[in-house]
Here is the input.
Amino acid sequence: RDWGIQLGRRFRALKLWFVIRSYGITGLQALIRKHIALAHELAGWIEASPDFELMAPVPFGLVCFRYNPHKTDGDDTDRMNTALLARVNASQRVHLTHTRLGGRYVIRVVVGQRQTERRHVEEVWRLVREAAREGL
Here is the structure.
């Protein structure tokens, strides 16, 4: 009575099977490569900006960064990034998350939704920069 069809071993793999069946191996590879390329492009924009810093390598679709115009490290920078994240998420255009890396507050962008295009990543970057300007 505690085991439903969704808990059987074969059914746990069914979701992955349908994804592979829908896209094909080469289609799935192309989609993942596209997401990685978009994340690398965003990371490049962040590295090129003097007010932002990339906080971790970007081997896949996850970009961790923070706003740090004064190049300081401490609670003020954490509070500034907390406020920045709140302003970006208040737009309700995108939803970013946060984490702590090495004890520092870091904003996370994940590129991985199947319909994500370059224009979406550009919008994230635009919203982040606008929210940073508003907070000054």
In short: The beta strands are 52-54, 62-67, 97-101, 104-110.
